[in-house]
Write the structure tokens for this entry.
Amino acid sequence: MSQRELWKIRKMVQRLFPTTDKHCEMCQSTEKIERHHRDGNIKRNPKNGKNIAYLCASCHDELHSKTGYVMRNVLAMVAV
């Protein structure tokens, strides 16, 4: 995937799923909220939001370390 494609995906995700006024779905924190793609596919962003989870940076890192998926795409997961 090219940098241009990643940039387009990032902009689309920011528009569809803003992180302002969100809380972590695991710990309820409101600090450093990031988007997590539930199925791991950064290209799948349905408008209903079913593939997006909002997590704080700590819980997001913990989730990825437990699932073994540590190479997350930082361009698609935008921290507030």
User: Anything to note?
Assistant: The longest helix spans residues 3-16. Residues 70-80 have pLDDT under 50 and may be disordered. Helices lie at 3-16, 57-67. Strands lie at 33-37, 52-56.
